[in-house]
Design goal:
single chain; Creatine Amidinohydrolase
Length: 606
């Protein structure tokens, strides 16, 4: 069988290697620069970027979803976070790039230590936000060096086989699934602009653009994004800056009813025009590039850089979106159960590889008849591969699923919702250490599922609940406990998250993942993930508004690796109740053979 929505061949971008690094240094020297800062992000600060924007992968060979490289005449380094420690080591040529953890060695600090007074360091203003570039400016100023914007990205100049920019058709997202019209959403945005006392909002995040105008596209892998931007004035018609070749007449007519449609290059001039009139414009600190902010400021306007007000509107799902999420998760849960039943029958014989499993799961999702895409490339990981949180199986790395633990992290894009689920399952015998760590991860997942918290609490305040059992054993994991999830949009959505850095209060209607993990490098990895919906929770005698989580994901959690003595009576009761609900909701949706497996997989622990 072949996968439809994901591939397992070599990375799609060929690394430039030593020749490319030498060519970049020569180009920088010709431009009068001593170095260059290259982020993983594209012009929209997307997590998943089109092939034409995979500059970091081209230059360094590193393909993680977050990273940054700095090139100097006699040194170069690539930075990422704890998710990619091993991947940096495996993908970088150490003779060309040092691989560093950005939390332990911040890029701006490394750069300040490496430069000499008088050096000129370049950056592409289309790829950096003002806040992001300000850290480098301060660090270089202290070192006596200078940071300079470039007119054209020098990496593009040496990338001879760079793919063409994407131009996928834009489609309308039905109002019955969106829950509100574009006109209604624009009204909410204008009301917020009046509250913020700004004259306009520059919409630079394509996710926000898609949500406001009820459109979807295919410019980015696995996320139905149309790349484009908008300018929404507090008074007057919105302007949509998008490639007109992506618009059918039907889509153009629908969008023209609420906005003027302009060429993408027109945004800078529109901002300059507002600047000449002294306008104050809100820019999204997370996605607005330096060049747009400077276009307004240079013309005399006032940039108001801060949180994108659309992000919070989008994060709090309305009734239609919540209903869609529930329906999508039941459908996806049935596909997952069919897969796990298949895996239980095939894996013990040693006939299944990581790719076989990923393809089989995709096929079960396709058989729902409504799958639009996977929500990200499946992390199908056996043995030591599961210790890499963002492992991507390829034909070169493909391994057989052998006795021990197997981890599958995957999701689907359906028109009514986006899913994301991880299950770790025992294949044959497991070791005492595996069972101990598996149970501690499960305890953390149950702790988040059961938590009740007052209105105003953020993800940072409950993140430790997922880690306590691991901390008690001297262990932890190096990623957040949970991220926000969109509605037929990005599987990683902000501003909500359960993380040490998650400062946004969790509000009813937000969807998040709940996914603690444990990773023993070179041996095994564990992650258990459900999606949850923040809801109001009635408590007898409560003195303030309380919130909790409704679980959206209904797929059995493997009980074979559980060390029962580590679970409390309350935790066992939660797991048994969850499995009873899985059995009741998913049983009617699957075939007779899968139901037999489901009955066994959801048998009570007590």
């Amino acid at each position: 069988m072949q996968a439809v929505f994901q591939s397992f061949g070599p990375d799609r971008i060929r690394s430039a290697g030593a020749e490319g690094l030498a060519a970049l240094r020569a180009r920088l020297a010709a431009d009068g620069l001593d170095g260059f800062i290259l982020p993983r992000s594209d012009e929209y600060q997307n997590e998943y970027v089109p092939p034409s924007a995979e500059r970091l992968a081209f230059l360094t060979g590193f393909t993680g979803s977050w990273g940054l490289a700095i090139v100097l005449p006699d040194a170069a380094a690539t930075f990422s976070d704890g998710r990619y420690t091993v991947q940096l080591r495996e993908q970088l040529d150490p003779a060309l790039f040092a691989g560093l953890n950005a939390l332990e060695t911040p890029p701006e600090r490394w750069l300040a230590d490496a430069v000499r007074p008088g050096m000129r360091i370049g950056f592409d203003p289309a790829l950096h936000t003002p806040d992001g570039i300000a850290r480098f400016e301060r660090a270089l100023a202290r070192a006596g060096a200078e940071l300079l914007p470039v007119e054209a990205n020098p990496v593009d100049a040496i990338w001879q086989d760079r793919p063409a920019p994407p131009s996928a058709p834009v489609v309308l997202h039905p109002e019955r699934l969106a829950g509100a019209s574009a006109e209604e959403k624009l009204g909410r945005v204008r009301a917020k602009l009046a509250e913020l006392r700004v004259d306009a909002l520059a919409v630079t995040d394509p996710h926000a653009l898609a949500w406001i105008f009820n459109i979807r596209g295919g410019d980015v892998s696995h996320t139905p994004l149309p790349l484009g931007r908008a300018l929404i004035p507090r008074e007057g018609r919105a302007r949509l800056f998008i490639d007109g070749r992506k618009l059918s007449q039907e889509v153009r007519d629908a969008l023209s009813a609420v906005a003027e449609i302009d060429d993408p290059a027109g945004l800078e001039e529109a901002l300059s025009l507002l600047g000449r009139g002294g306008a104050k414009v809100r820019f999204d600190a997370a996605s607005a590039s330096v060049r747009f902010v400077e276009a307004l400021e240079t013309a005399g306007g006032t940039p108001d850089t801060g949180a994108d007000p659309v992000a919070l509107m989008k994060a709090v799902k309305n009734e239609a979106e919540i209903a869609g999420a529930r329906a999508a998760h039941l459908r996806d849960g049935a596909a997952m159960c069919r897969f796990l039943a298949w895996l239980a029958g095939e894996a013990p014989a040693g006939r299944v590889t990581e790719i076989d499993a990923a393809v089989a799961l995709e096929r079960f999702r396709i058989e729902t008849g409504v799958l639009k895409d996977v929500s990200f490339p499946s992390i199908s990981a056996a043995g030591a591969h599961a210790a890499l949180p963002h492992y991507r199986v390829t034909e070169a790395s493909n391994a057989a699923i052998t006795p021990g633990l197997y981890l599958i992290d995957s999701g689907g894009q359906y028109e009514d919702g986006t899913t994301d689920i991880t299950r770790t399952v025992a294949v044959g015998e497991t070791t005492p250490e595996m069972r101990d760590r598996y149970t501690r991860v499960l305890k953390g997942m149950i702790a988040i599922s059961r938590t009740v918290f007052p209105k105003g609490v953020s993800g940072a305040q409950i993140d430790a609940f997922a880690r306590q059992a691991l901390w008690n054993a001297g262990a932890d994991f190096d990623h957040g406990t949970g991220h926000g999830v969109g509605s037929f949009l990005s599987v990683h959505e902000g501003p909500q998250r359960i993380s040490k850095l998650g400062t946004t209060p969790l509000e009813p209607g937000m969807i998040l993942s709940n996914e603690p993990g444990y990773y023993r490098e070179g041996a095994f990895g564990i992650r258990i993930e459900n999606l949850v919906l923040v809801e109001r929770r009635a408590l007898e005698g409560a003195e303030r508004e309380m919130h909790g989580f409704e679980t959206l994901t209904f797929v059995p959690i493997d009980t074979a690796p559980i060390e029962r003595a580590l679970l409390t009576a309350d935790e066992i009761a939660w797991l048994d109740a969850y499995h009873a609900e899985v059995r009741a909701k998913i049983g009617p949706l699957v075939d007779a053979g899968t139901r037999i497996w489901l009955e066994a997989a959801t048998r009570p622990l007590v």
